[in-house]
Design goal:
heterodimer; A: alpha/beta; Rossmann fold; 2 domains; six-stranded mixed β-sheet; 18 helices; 23 strands; B: 341 residues; mainly alpha
């Protein structure tokens, strides 16, 4: 593929990206959220038409208009969510949509023979008559691959194939991937897991903000540089890998923590980790996408149930089994997914602001209308929310202003701890600066803050202490003067 | 002064009840031109009679159902079981009055508690077990009809209780008691929704359930509540309905009324996907449907064909409510005008 561009409603998702996959290699496609990985794949598979550029397949110029056409050309894709029909058998799933027919009826004998051949190609032994729902996730993944691989497949795209697999299952999948590579297939491997990229891929292409950063041989690109390329920062001193990752004692450690979590974890979410947040302290959570930042936040807020560990608030054990209970205990959570977990779109700015407070008061004690209007007016003024009126539906506001309304929703509760998950995502630079300033002033007032952002620069500026996560594990902690972007990147990249 | 009144008018024009009101006004205008007798009111024994009063009287049952249905739909659900709840409650009340000579207070108690438990059953299955509302209430619709038929073995019953008959047949100050009842229920519902936080929570849950739950709203509780309320409204509708008719047919009572109630809510301006709701709109919607039906019959339309124009009017009102459709029409008219100007 060369010079691929694609814009959606004025937003440039891809800017002249080149991407080359050779036959018989596993090529990892990497980049942070919004880098353009999925757009590139969708252009390749004909889901989106490209704006300009060219796609060559085995020397021939192709432009598939639909996934079906791409498949016929030999480009097969296995998507992140496994698109199988759970109640049908393995064989039926593999042959779905292209069942061989005889006299208009399905030719079951031929169907099973072809399904068996497809599985043999992956060298897996599996009972064709089992229903897919009774197979493990890894096997389901294999069935999906078998289905995607038509006889004439030349290129196989695997979009986040390992996100729901455990270590053993990942190893199984890698075996199959290597086998296909030996058969001369080109494989594109999209993932967030760095270790997996180094375990299986031959080459890496990195995208950032819709632009090509470069193509590298995996063996020649140290992890640390890869992280730097994904995040768009060159390391000032690349070679100085961590001599001290220990916590230096500063004045903060003497203060009692507001929240202390011990061995907090959730199966399939995050591995057990310890976490402390003190009053008047901003703790940053750093890590790449999918490293377990949001998962940790959701455990603290009771949005997901923890399967291990305990939490104490002000020294007392707290259950925090639901958001309502967490809110009652003085915890607020500003979700990263503003649209589906934050705003109530058709309700007014005023109603969105008072929602959490009203929920705390219950059904009967309705906040008097005048009080509601006062609160709305206060926060519209204090946070400089740009809205025509407090009665405007929140969906009519810009992203940054919606975010401020959500902050107002939590601030009016005067929480003791506020968790900000990507509070600056998708908002303009001015609003970003305002939110950072707000975070600092809240800290000075003595609030405890857990700050999550994929922009390292922001985390470094805002935090007194930083927890670094990688692959759903806590890999280290920095505090005070130790905090800088290089250090964090080193920790993200370092081996155990 | 001027600006205040203009914002009032513009707010009115933007509100949801404009289109159903416009539809109702159009129908009344039609009658004013072609059928003056529609507006005639006569008095007999000091009570008012006439086509208009009949329309109101006939819409009371659907109005009551629509009150409950509005809240259910606002949470993004639907309640198909209200017709069958009517059948169970109506049959049971008539049966207990005839066979066990229960008085009106105990009959009312039975009606409320039976409907309460059916509503709670619906609500718990939907919000705690997580089955789709349409599935749960469809099951209840089929099951409830069977239960109602079983109470009497399928045979119709006379309504003997004077309290129930009073609700259905009597007049206060010349106006049917049912109309007072529906106004009372309307007032109570509006108070419940707007003077407590129920209205806010219902709209929040219907609009974005995840965000509401993460804000601490007890989304499950709210959902159970609206299904209970819907069933209780159905019980009141049953009492009015059997009191008015003077008899109960377990097979026919409430039959298909769930669809009329849903139609009234949708025509009234509450969208099926949930969120903002308007109780007044639903009342107007119910009135609109009944006015239309009566008008068609008075125009000599065979009642077998009446559903066709009814469906058309509902379609038009719903299309007018859609902003997208209005914008398309506006641009179409705009295109039409351009060449001439």
């Amino acid at each position: 593929m060369s010079g691929i561009s694609k814009a959606f409603r004025g937003v440039q998702a891809l800017k002249g990206v080149d991407f080359t996959v050779r036959a018989g290699e596993i090529h990892a496609l990497m980049g942070e959220n919004g880098a353009g990985k999925s757009t590139l794949i969708k252009v390749l598979t004909g889901v989106h038409p490209r704006d300009c550029g060219e796609v060559l397949l085995a020397g021939q110029s192709v432009s598939p208009q639909a996934p079906r056409e791409a498949e016929e050309l030999g480009i097969s894709t296995v998507y992140q969510e496994i698109n199988l029909i759970p109640e049908l058998s393995v064989a039926e799933n593999i042959m779905l949509g292209r069942q061989p027919r005889r006299f208009g009826f399905i030719d079951w004998k031929e169907l099973h023979a072809r399904a068996r051949r497809a599985l043999q190609r992956l060298e897996i032994d599996l009972n064709l008559h089992l229903s897919v729902s009774s197979c493990s996730l890894a096997l389901q993944q294999m069935v999906a691959i078998a289905r995607a691989l038509d006889v004439n497949a030349k290129l196989l795209i695997l979009d986040e194939p390992t996100s729901s697999l455990d270590e053993h299952e990942v190893a199984e999948l890698f075996k199959v991937m290597r086998r296909l590579r030996e058969q001369g297939l080109g494989l594109v491997f999209v993932t967030h897991f760095m270790d997996q990229v180094y375990a299986v891929s031959d080459r890496i292409t990195v995208l950032r903000n819709g632009e090509l950063v470069g193509e590298f041989k995996t063996a020649e690109l140290p992890k640390l540089q890869l992280v730097g390329k994904m995040l768009g920062r060159e390391l000032s001193a690349v070679e100085k890998v961590g001599d001290t990752m220990t916590l230096s004692a500063d004045e903060n450690t003497t203060r009692d923590p507001f929240l202390a979590a011990k061995q907090l974890g959730r199966k399939g979410g995050v591995e057990p980790l310890d976490l402390e947040i003190r009053k008047g302290e901003v703790v940053g959570l750093a890590g790449l996408l999918g490293s377990g930042r949001t998962e940790t936040a959701r455990l603290l807020f009771g949005a997901d149930r923890r399967t291990s560990g305990s939490i104490t608030l002000d020294g007392r054990a707290a259950a925090l089994s639901s958001p309502a209970k967490a809110i009652g205990a003085g915890i607020a959570f500003c979700s990263e997914d503003r649209k589906s977990e934050g705003i109530v779109p058709s309700l007014s700015v005023r109603e969105n602001i008072i929602l959490a407070m009203q929920a705390g008061r219950g059904i009967l004690r309705l906040l008097p209308r005048r009080k509601q209007e006062e609160l709305a007016a206060h926060y519209i003024n204090a946070l400089r929310i740009k809205t025509p009126s407090p009665e405007t539906p929140i969906q009519n506001l810009s992203g940054g202003n919606q975010q401020k309304v959500l902050l107002a929703r939590w601030l009016c509760l005067q929480p003791k701890l506020i968790i900000l998950d990507e509070p600056t995502r998708g908002i303009d630079v001015g609003a970003k600066a305002e939110i950072e300033k707000l975070v600092d002033s809240l800290r000075r007032e003595g609030m405890a803050i857990l700050f999550i952002s994929s922009e390292l620069e922001e985390v470094v500026r805002a935090s007194q202490r930083v927890l670094v996560l990688r692959d759903r594990k806590k890999v280290g902690e920095l505090s005070g003067e130790q905090i800088n972007e290089d250090r964090i990147m080193e920790m993200i990249a370092s081996h155990e | 002064m001027n600006s205040a009144s203009s914002t009032f008018i513009s707010r009115f024009l933007q509100s949801r009840i404009v289109w159903p009101l416009a539809g109702l006004a159009l129908l009344l205008l039609f009658n004013l031109i072609f059928d003056r007798a529609f507006f005639e009111v006569t008095t007999r024994d000091g009570n008012f009679y006439g086509p208009m009063l009949t329309v109101m009287r006939l819409s009371v049952v659907v109005m009551l159902l629509a009150m409950g249905m509005t809240l259910v739909i606002a949470t993004g659900g639907v309640d198909l079981s209200v017709g069958s709840v009517m059948a169970i409650v109506g049959t049971l009340v008539a049966f207990l009055a005839v066979k066990h000579h229960l008085g009106f207070p105990s009959l009312l108690g039975v009606a409320i508690s039976v409907s309460l438990s059916i509503g709670a059953f619906n609500g718990v299955l939907i919000s705690c077990v997580g089955i789709q509302p349409i599935v749960v209430t469809l099951i209840m619709m089929v099951l409830g009809r069977g239960v109602a038929l079983n109470i009497t073995g399928g045979s119709p019953l006379q309504v003997m209780d004077s309290g129930v008959l009073f609700l259905g047949k009597s007049f206060i100050m010349g106006v049917p008691v049912q109309i007072f009842l529906v106004l009372f229920v309307f007032a109570i519902t509006v108070m419940l929704c707007r003077k407590t936080a129920i209205g806010l929570f219902v709209e929040a849950v219907g609009d974005n359930e995840t965000a509401s739950r993460l804000s601490g709203v007890n989304a499950r509780g709210i959902k159970v509540l609206v299904y209970i309320f819907s069933a209780v409204c159905a019980a009141l509708a049953a009492l009015v309905s059997i009191g008015d008719a003077g008899s109960v047919d377990p097979d026919g009572l409430g039959q298909m009324l769930e669809l009329d109630a849903i139609t009234a809510v949708v025509v009234g301006g509450t969208v099926l996907t949930g969120g903002r709701f308007t109780l007044l709109g639903s009342l107007i919607g119910a009135l609109l449907i009944q006015t239309l039906a009566t008008t068609l019959i008075r125009q000599g339309m065979d009642s077998a064909y009446a559903p066709v124009p009814k469906a058309l009017v509902i379609l038009v009102v719903c299309l007018l409510q859609s902003q997208k459709f209005r914008a398309q029409i506006a641009s179409l008219i705009g295109n039409f005008r351009k060449p001439t100007s």
